[in-house]
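Practice problem: predict the structure.
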Amino acid sequence: MGNVQFLLKQHVGGPCKPAVNAGDYVKKGTLIAEPAGLGANIFSSVYGTVESVDDQMIVVVPDKEQPEEYVKLEKMSSKLDMVKAAGLVGMGGAGFPTGVKLGTDLQGGYILVNAAECEPGLRHNMVQLETKELCEKTVRGVEYCMEISNAAKAIFAIKAKNEAAVKSLKEAIKDKPAMSIHLLPDIYPMGEERAVVRECLDILLEPDKLPSAAHANVCNVESVLRVAEAVEDCKPCFSKNMTVIGKLNGGNAPHVFMDVPIGTSVGDLIEKAGGIEGEYGEIIMGGAFTGQPTTLESPVTKTTGGIIVTVPFPDLHGAPVGLLVCACGGSEVRMRDLVAKMNGKVVSVTFCKQAVEVKPGAPRKCENPGNCPGQAERCLTMKKEGSEYILIGNCSDCSNTVMGSAPKLGLKVMHQTDHVCRTIGHKLYRHLTVSKTVEQTI
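Answer:
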């Protein structure tokens, strides 16, 4: 293991303030940074010596020997205080402090457990639920969340295709009348929090509303496992479950690593998964839709779910490309980056007709995630503005509607996830071939 880097900003809110200095010795579970406002505590994930501290990160040189023992949190009578002290955040990508979220009184409402794991290729959430001990602990974590938030019921939102995880979950909650399972269709983005509320509660929230408006909290399935660790084991949050997949020696099957020390480098994890096989296109931290390009030196944070090594990009030889930017996929900046990597030229930028601005300068949000109308007008605009290709980042349903008009206009369609899907053997996002509904509550 190389040096371990702890970013001081790895969740919603401002950067944390360092609580250690260069030369200090830290243990697994030592508090090394605290929030200045909205945020969460950061703990060392290794035994070692602090090499440097600045306003961006803390770097620790790890010892060769790494004991399993960790510095435990002080036991408190309040479960909410334990969650806050543990530095828990949403571990599905957004990174909102869990202690703040669970502090909302749901007045007898719902804890909605997001187990959709929507991004293609990721598997760590399902491995968590398929593992009996971890599944049972996850259920206990949900019970703690219900108690803290004054929720009367809990619903696990999970895709019907994940039969082994569903079976394990059914067994774990069979004597829990307040808990149920809601089966989701295999389309993206069923894991978006307003989509979870809509699917589980049949309530469509406005784009600017939080789930609390429906007397609900949406919690990632790994986050509730970490809640149980904080309450039962007095364990700080210093590790992350992850999937590494892609153009790797040994094949493109997913490698699931549980309890990866936060601060581990991308390169170390890729080597643990077999190393990169030959030439590659890019390395993505996160998922195919919402992840960002990264480097081998970048560190894992509390919100890192996946690392994907992709096949090389095709060469468009300077061809004109139109962008159709969706609120559920990559930003315009990300899509421009992909066009540049394919040696294309952006000549037109349009937005999905449901992607609305909630606040000036903030990322757009979808009016109804996963249920999208036709995009013929956008396709026609890109055609008129000189596009030969169009790059879309749309959800499953919206991509399907694009395919109803773009080819008729002579436009060649690419999806921002194509290079990932081709790498891992996943079907390309074009025509929707599955139903948007399933047998729902069990």
